[in-house]
From TrEMBL, chain A:
Residues of the Aconitase/3-isopropylmalate dehydratase large subunit alpha/beta/alpha domain: 11-461
Cofactor descriptive note: Binds 1 [4Fe-4S] cluster per subunit.
Species this protein is from: Adhaeribacter swui
Family: Belongs to the aconitase/IPM isomerase family. LeuC type 1 subfamily.
Pathway per the UniProt entry: Amino-acid biosynthesis; L-leucine biosynthesis; L-leucine from 3-methyl-2-oxobutanoate: step 2/4
Catalytic reaction equation(s): (2R,3S)-3-isopropylmalate = (2S)-2-isopropylmalate
InterPro entries cross-referenced by the UniProt entry: 3-IsopropMal_deHydase_lsu, Acnase/IPM_dHydase_lsu_aba_1/3, Acoase/IPM_deHydtase_lsu_aba, Aconitase_4Fe-4S_BS, Aconitase_4Fe-4S_dom, IPM_dehydratase_rel_enz, IPMI_cat
Role summary: Catalyzes the isomerization between 2-isopropylmalate and 3-isopropylmalate, via the formation of 2-isopropylmaleate.
CDD domains per UniProt: IPMI
Enzyme's top EC category: lyase
One biological process term in Gene Ontology: L-leucine biosynthetic process
Protein's name in the database: 3-isopropylmalate dehydratase large subunit
From TrEMBL, chain B:
EC number: 4.2.1.33
Subunit and partners: Heterodimer of LeuC and LeuD.
GO cellular component: 3-isopropylmalate dehydratase complex
Assigned protein family: Belongs to the LeuD family. LeuD type 1 subfamily.
One Pfam family, short name: Aconitase_C
Major enzyme class: lyase
CDD domains in the cross-refs: IPMI_Swivel (cd01577)
Protein name: 3-isopropylmalate dehydratase small subunit
Keyword Metal-binding listed: no
Role description: Catalyzes the isomerization between 2-isopropylmalate and 3-isopropylmalate, via the formation of 2-isopropylmaleate.
Amino acid sequence: MSSSDKKTLFQKIWDAHVVTSIPDGPDVLYIDRHLVHEVTSPQAFAGLEKRGIGVFRTQNTVATADHNVPTINQHLPISEPLSRFQVDKLTENCRKFGVNLYGLGHPFQGIVHVIGPELGITLPGMTMVCGDSHTSTHGAFGTIAFGIGTSEVEQVLATQCLMQNKPKTMRINIEGELANGVLSKDIILYIISKLTMGGATGYFVEYAGSAIRSLSMEARMTICNMSIEMGARGGLIAPDDITFEYIQGRRFAPQGEKFEEAVAYWRTLFTDEGAAFDVEYTFDAADIAPMITYGTNPGMGIKIDETVPSLADIKEESNKASFDKSLAYMGLHPGEQLLGKEINYVFIGSCTNSRIEDLRLVAQFVKGKHKAPNINALIVPGSKQVEQQAREEGIDQIFREAGFELREPGCSACLGMNEDKVPKGEYCISTSNRNFEGRQGPGARTLLASPLTAAATAIAGKITDVRELI
Amino acid sequence: MEKFKKITSTAVPLPIEDIDTDQIIPARFLKATTREGFGDNLFRDWRYNNQNNPKPEFVLNNPQYSGQVLVAGKNFGCGSSREHAAWAINDYGFKVVISSFFADIFKGNALNNGLLPVQVSEEFLATVFAHIFADRNTELEVNLEEQTVRITGTDLVEKFDINQYKKTCLINGYDDIDYLLSLKDKIEAYEKTSKYLSLVDLKQEVEA
């Protein structure tokens, strides 16, 4: 193989999906799977209607309701009229256009990025899109998956294709062994703190290295999920035996001989030795500690035992106005220690950390303990299937005894489109992906951290270094 | 989509970096099912207090500044992919956003809606801000055909990049869907030859 034949994993998948290229313009990319939810689709379906056309490939399209759904009494009609209208609109559109919908009440309903993998809809080597920036989650399977806007949702519904410029490629290697108490959430918060929130804009990122290869599929999803928080179009990880084991037997995955045939193909999906990336970084896993954010973007993260930096410590990426504005919003000041700070809200959920593995990890930690009296601890599973599994494993009982509130599945307090919001001025340790101003409700102050840090904080009633407890 | 060739307008300065789409249009306003009316809630939480009264310190509430051009700090439009952000900026009356860096998805969403994102150098952005703050009547001329942005009445001008395909679309008011629909035969031919599609039986999904 000559050096020019050597391809990155990203290039292999991209090249296999180019229908045609426009000279001096974008490629026309074929999309294998299109995930749809209620917030970013109504205007797209209305566009099809206006043009008098249908959904081009309904069998490539899967819809669910997640952003607006309440997390209690899901068997009742949604009480908030606008949310109810948007969810009803999705149901109506899916019926009219023949799209498969896992809506409220369906045993497969859940957060769009949780149900794709658990149902075997997400498979290696695919192209996947959704009108949601965290579509990057599916990259954990060695899939080109990225978020799109509503006009692009309409393009894909109409033609199963998307006009896209090929992004640049970046590889991030994490080498070595992770310390005890350090989760994949800490890895990605650490990477974003190093690269800053615009540091990967224009790139598609491949995560590699021994620390990444050692992770479970669900831990890999957490990393790919937050690729967008450093501006990346998406993140991906080469599929391996851990991937194939996860997929085998899932509802919509190929079965039997088809599965073996697929695995043989999936084994060709890796970056060739010597293939060139536009940028490459390598970090030492041993340098990663439990992380926490102090500011109003996911790049403003520190190791949990560090202090809030001062402007002088900040690299060129954040200007003085944004940094001061951020700390003023958070009610924090430079040099402040976050460890030991009393906070009142804990949210465990979102497409970043609401999978069964996250719930198991938290349950294992809180078993036999009880949350501190000042804490409101909300746990929201990512899907009906996760909820069901938690019940079967007795995890629901553990949470109840520990004083945690286990809700019904949905996006919940990650972005507060439903009733689950953090009050103005209150601090919340959140396992979600964004700490933007007002993200969890107007005036809410979000500190992003791993599920273990969230659990330890819930028990202690103050920000806690989980390494001291395990 | 509306055609875009050239505009000359005063500008609204917003010198903040990393403005995310949650600030441009908070999630609670995403429940509409049409594209209209989002301008009322553009920068809602920066623009209004809890009692829904305008905050006088925010630039959109400052009668001194107006115009069809929004000038913002680096990394504009990061975060959520919500196209509602581009709709809100458009609906409010802006035709151009100038910054030294844009998030990818926002840039694509803007271009798909006839809102022109103009990426300039850090130095030129600083010059533009300085001129606007020195004189609020400063006009900017944004010429898409020439790919230039000029501070009118001065020789301060900078060229900007834009994908040539997108440029043609904007100038003519075309959108991507019309073009893609014309490729139906090619798309169907691709489907027949795709090795990948032969591996996965797509039909099994609809039966669920």
